[in-house]
Amino acid sequence: MSDASGKLTTPNVVWHHATVTRARREALNRHKGAVVWFTGLSGSGKSTLAHTVEEKLYQMGCRTFVFDGDNVRHGLCGDLTFSPEDRRENIRRIGEMTKLFLDAGVIAMTAFISPYRDDRERVRAIVGPTDFIEIHCDCPVEICEQRDVKGMYKKAREGLIKEFTGISAPYETPVAPELRLNTGSDPLDDCADRVLTVLADRGVISPGRRVS
Q1: What are the φ/ψ torsions at residue 207 (nearest 5 degrees)?
Q2: Cβ pair 180, 136 in contact under 8 A
Q3: Catalytic position from the list 42, 44, 47, 114
Q4: Fold held by 22-201
Q5: Catalytic residue list contains 47
Q6: What are the tens digits of pLDDT across the range 196-208?
Q7: Could you tell me the residue ranges of all domains in the chain?
Q8: CA distances for 9 relative to 91, 142, 191, angstroms
Q9: Beta strands, E only, the chain
Q10: What phi, psi does 134 have (nearest 5°)?
Q11: Half-sphere exposure of residue 114, counting CA atoms within 13 Å on the CB side?
């Protein structure tokens, strides 16, 4: 059985605490864990930016992982559609996965449209507000369409793809993200460096840590 939040209430299912704690893992990694949640329209640069940040962190010796919106639908979320209900479940599952990576002391990054504000706030609650960093990749839909080599926006405008965010389904802009980036015009490297600055300011990485 589950309560309203989806958590198990069955007495036979208990939480087992590890002897190797998150704090010990972070001490070994020499950086803290965090969940960096990139959100924005399709084509706004979420995946590109997340992997650019990951490369910089990797060169610093950090433990990282990027959850990509397309990739998880090949396995973990392969049973879900793009209906509003399934999109919410998609984000819930990823939120729970990133929490596990956080407990492992990893800097977990996600690249998901995650169009609904309530769903992003739900993940913030799952992860914990001090460990959740929301990055809004703010890019005009016109530029996103220009970048769309797969022609998804064109198909959506022709009615061939239903419930396509930004065309036939809503995107709820973050109200107060930890960082808002103009990914339509700002250089990629500058955007990545601004994300690293937020991580340093939050104490996730050392301010003096440099790319090797």
Answers
A1: -55, -25
A2: yes
A3: 114
A4: Rossmann fold (3.40.50)
A5: no
A6: 999 999 999 988 6
A7: 22-201
A8: 22, 47, 43
A9: 34-39, 64-68, 107-111, 132-138, 179-182
A10: -90, 125
A11: 30
